[in-house]
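Please decode residue identities from the backbone states below.
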């Protein structure tokens, strides 16, 4: 359908992804939607665990929390959405699930736009064929394909999330409280993964990287994680011999972009904070095992991807079906540290030339 068929000042509802990393990679979609409809009202429907991030997105006018974990909690807040968002010009479906299509129809809109996945095509008005799986599309392009299928040209394939002064100040205060104020270079690591243990790299690996970075670059290392990951972060700090400091459980999702912006490099598996770091412009070193970097790795020259080639990867399983997690455990600490040192050297080179950091 041609873009001329759209009402330029209408309301648009976007059903956002349920995972933090996917929500971060949806930013170019939201920015392009805003560019296509600069006078429209664009509102997102998000899970409680992604809403905090989406509320920082300048391309959205409002974020509505809906759902929770399991049973009736998953539909908490759903009934009010119809009153708040009903009659929208369009409801855009970024998740692939049948349930999201049902929710879109419940909200009601002149058009319901999404891919015909999970046998839900009959619930959509704009039924889009998913892109071919070979080669697998990057998730950023996958989301932008929804706009293209609806007759809109994506104008932004790369965007940067601005950090507010209030959040930036909170992040700097947290670093000062942890004894990391002014520490340079400052490297962040995230040893956990909400997806499941198959994405995690051993804490002794992160500890060894912290020791090498301290020895060779004078770096300090901040270990990030949620409140439930305090024990894991503590293990990394013990393995680091004092080179790392735990911030686990001391930040929150609204502060996370600002905290990641303060780092010189961020090291993690294929996790939500990895993609938020890339979104705020922080260089990353990502460790891939059970997932496919062609689909979700941060893109661009400032990012490094490390993957151990083995026969069963990627498997996309939350827990290694073979029980040994070879795809992650066989990634060597020296290899990771070398990638971080390379990124730091390139950043120093840009500073010397007066270029962007």
């Amino acid at each position: 359908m041609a873009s001329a068929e759209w009402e330029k000042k209408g309301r648009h509802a976007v059903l956002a992804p349920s995972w933090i990393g996917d929500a971060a990679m949806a930013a170019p979609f939201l920015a392009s939607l805003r560019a296509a409809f600069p006078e429209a009202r664009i509102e997102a429907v998000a899970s409680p665990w992604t809403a905090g991030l989406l509320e920082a997105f300048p391309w959205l006018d409002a974020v509505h929390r809906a759902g929770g974990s399991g049973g009736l909690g998953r539909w908490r807040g759903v009934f009010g959405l119809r009153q708040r968002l009903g009659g929208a010009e369009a409801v855009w479906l970024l998740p692939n699930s049948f349930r999201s299509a049902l929710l879109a129809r419940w909200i009601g809109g002149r058009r319901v736009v999404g891919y015909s996945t999970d046998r839900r095509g009959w619930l959509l008005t704009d039924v889009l064929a998913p892109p071919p799986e070979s080669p697998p599309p990057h998730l950023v392009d996958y989301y932008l394909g929804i706009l293209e299928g609806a007759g809109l040209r994506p104008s932004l394939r790369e965007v940067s999330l601005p950090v507010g002064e209030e959040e930036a100040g909170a992040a700097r205060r947290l670093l000062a409280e942890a004894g990391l104020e002014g520490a340079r270079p400052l490297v962040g690591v995230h040893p956990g993964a909400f997806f499941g243990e198959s994405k995690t790299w051993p804490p002794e690996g992160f500890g060894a990287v912290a020791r090498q970075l301290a020895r060779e670059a004078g770096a300090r290392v901040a270990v990030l994680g949620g409140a439930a990951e305090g024990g894991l972060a503590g293990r990394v700090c013990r393995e680091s011999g004092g080179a790392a400091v735990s911030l686990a459980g001391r930040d929150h999702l609204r502060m996370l972009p600002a905290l990641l912006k303060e780092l010189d490099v961020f090291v993690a598996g294929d996790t939500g904070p990895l993609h938020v770091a890339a979104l705020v412009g922080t260089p990353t070193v990502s460790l891939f095992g059970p997932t496919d970097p062609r689909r979700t790795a941060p893109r661009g020259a400032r990012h490094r991807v490390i993957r151990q080639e083995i026969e069963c990867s990627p498997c996309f399983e939350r827990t290694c079906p073979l029980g040994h997690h070879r795809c992650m455990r066989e990634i060597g600490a020296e290899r990771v540290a070398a990638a971080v040192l390379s990124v730091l050297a390139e950043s120093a080179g840009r500073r010397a030339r007066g270029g962007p950091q």
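Observation: The longest strand covers residues 109-115.
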